[in-house]
TrEMBL record:
Family in the record: Belongs to the purine/pyrimidine phosphoribosyltransferase family.
UniProt name for this protein: Adenine phosphoribosyltransferase
Entry's EC annotation: 2.4.2.7
Gene name for this UniProt entry: apt
NCBIfam families per the UniProt record, alphabetical: PRK02304.1-3, PRK02304.1-5
Source organism phylogeny: Bacteria, Bacillati, Actinomycetota, Actinomycetes, Mycobacteriales
Organism: Mycobacterium paraterrae
Pathway(s) served: Purine metabolism; AMP biosynthesis via salvage pathway; AMP from adenine: step 1/1
EC top class named in words: transferase
Function: Catalyzes a salvage reaction resulting in the formation of AMP, that is energically less costly than de novo synthesis.
Domain Phosphoribosyltransferase: 49-152
A Pfam cross-reference name: Pribosyltran
Length: 173
């Protein structure tokens, strides 16, 4: 099976979560399956090769980014939801399909200036979270070369909202 086949087979779909009308894609079964995790990691490693650092978006992006970074022999950076890091932090506020949120990075202790970073997340929906992560890393001086996601929900326009950032999707719904 391809990585995309495994994503389709192992993704649990949850209706009306976290709010009515949202069809949540739960990747927990995919990530718990050794074949699924390996296939998705391998595909993202192929597109992230050459990066200095892999950045994972809170929270499922952490798991994927850690696996990819370990395979590539790079470091991993956690892009956290607002309020989870001690100050000082870089903060970016943004809209998502069912509310508002913020993302943060440490402002001290990690030199990001000029580093080639690939951003990894689980799902690209409207693109708000990925675009905010890109802006946040830019603010910190990083060079974001691309993003990789497990699932892209094509009907929501996320790719257009993060353009011109190149995005690789393992599977499209």
């Amino acid at each position: 099976m391809t990585a995309a086949d495994l994503v389709v087979a192992l993704t649990r779909q949850v209706a009306d979560f976290p709010s009515p009308g949202v069809q949540f894609k739960d990747l927990t079964p995919l990530l718990a399956d050794p074949r699924g995790l390996a296939a998705v990691t391998d595909e993202i490693v192929d597109v992230a090769s050459g990066a200095d650092l892999i950045a994972g978006i809170d929270a499922r992006g952490f798991l994927l980014a850690g696996a990819v970074a370990a395979r590539l022999g790079t470091g991993v950076l956690a892009i956290r939801k607002g309020g989870k890091l001690p100050p000082p932090v870089h903060t970016e506020h943004y809209q998502l399909e069912y509310g508002t949120a913020s993302l943060e990075l440490p402002a001290d202790g990690i030199e990001l200036t000029g580093r080639n970073v690939v951003v990894v997340d689980d799902v690209l929906a409207t693109g708000g979270t990925l675009a905010a992560a890109h802006r946040l890393l830019d603010q910190a001086g990083a060079q974001v070369s691309r993003a990789a996601v497990v699932i892209e929900l094509i009907g929501l326009g996320g790719r257009d909202n993060v353009a011109p950032l190149p995005v690789h999707s393992v599977c499209v719904f």
